[in-house]
Inverse folding.
């Protein structure tokens, strides 16, 4: 079970392979580019080694989270690539609903014209 989970779930966000392969541009690409676990490790080490007086805004935010063992800055069950797909699907659904409403209006006006004949 553990091996299967490790091979089919993103270590960072917890999203499964099937979802990322079908809606997220590919599981391997996602793990390599979007949520590379080594990048998160590098960030933790980088912040640990950097002088806190030299932190920029986001570094200060993440460092303070790490200092209190708060990992809420790490995406959990979410990924930008999936949000983009969801936004596109919602826009397409809205457009489709508008088209259906337009057709319905046209149908009603056509029925009124036929009744007056």
């Amino acid at each position: 079970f553990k091996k299967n989970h490790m091979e089919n779930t993103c270590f960072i966000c917890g999203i499964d392979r099937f979802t990322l392969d079908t809606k997220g541009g590919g599981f391997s690409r996602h793990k390599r580019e979007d949520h590379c676990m080594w990048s998160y490790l590098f960030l933790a080490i980088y912040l640990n080694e950097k002088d806190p007086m030299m932190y920029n805004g986001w570094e200060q935010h993440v460092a303070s989270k790490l200092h209190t063992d708060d990992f809420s800055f790490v995406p959990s069950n979410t990924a930008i690539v999936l949000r983009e797909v969801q936004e596109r699907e919602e826009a397409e659904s809205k457009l489709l609903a508008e088209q259906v409403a337009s057709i319905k209006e046209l149908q009603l006006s056509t029925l009124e014209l036929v009744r007056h004949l």
About this structure: The CA atoms of residues 111 and 117 lie 10 Å apart. The chain has a mean pLDDT of 93.
